[in-house]
Amino acid sequence: MMRARLFSSLTIWLLFAVSEGLSQMQTAQVQHPAMDPVSTRDGFPQVLLIGDSISIDYTLHVRGLLSKVADVHRPLVNCESTIEGLREIDHWLGAKQWAVIHFNWGLHDLKYENEKGEGALPPAGKQKVPPPQYEKNLRALVERLKRTGARLIFATTTPVPDGTIMRIRGEEAGYNRVAAALTSEYRIPVDDLHAFVVPRAGGIQRPRNVHFTPEGSMLLAREVAASILTALGISLEEWSNK
Length: 242
Prior knowledge:
This protein is α/β, with parallel strands linked by helices. It has helices at residues 2-27, 53-65, 82-93, 131-146, 172-186, 193-197, 201-204, 214-232, 236-240, and strands at 46-50, 71-73, 100-103, 112-113, 126-127, 151-155, 190-191. It folds into 2 domains: 1-30; 32-240, Rossmann fold (3-Layer(aba) Sandwich), CATH 3.40.50.1110. It is built from 9 helices and 7 strands; from the N terminus they run αβαβαβββαβαβαααα.
């Protein structure tokens, strides 16, 4: 009888402990390692990546690929849409002297939300930032980025496949056309990640999802790193010999 009571008490305690542990895990904020601050090294150009979760997933790879030639930073948040960009850009830029800024907004601009800010396709939802407003917002952001004196690179918005939540397939094309006109006007080099992904999407993008497989993020990182090396005036041969 004593052993039964002891076993029962121990079982209750274990269930409580597990429940508490799960509760703490669910409420804990798990930080993506890409958000870890990066030290600034003397004599190394400083590079800033601005973008959403697509860029968050390739940040560590870019950082590793360029570790011998540059310090690669990013805002310690998902940069989401041009609305958040306009609100936070001064904070993200800070006082650092940036050599290169590689940036994108798009996937969070074209998504659909209801009046509560929840994801909802039409007719319940409306686009967060329709293309005409996207053009105005992106222009203002480009003007701000140009004042840094950094070499700018715009990354095109990657494809929206069928079946994604809050987004409609192919609508990124309209946003990329808006961006193309602006980058041409301001003579900003373009890292065409959209064109890179299209022929490979089935193998590197998750099904019914705008996000990429680990291999896909690594491949995107290589494209991003190559565009940054070009902006820094470093050839692939020089980089490989570092």
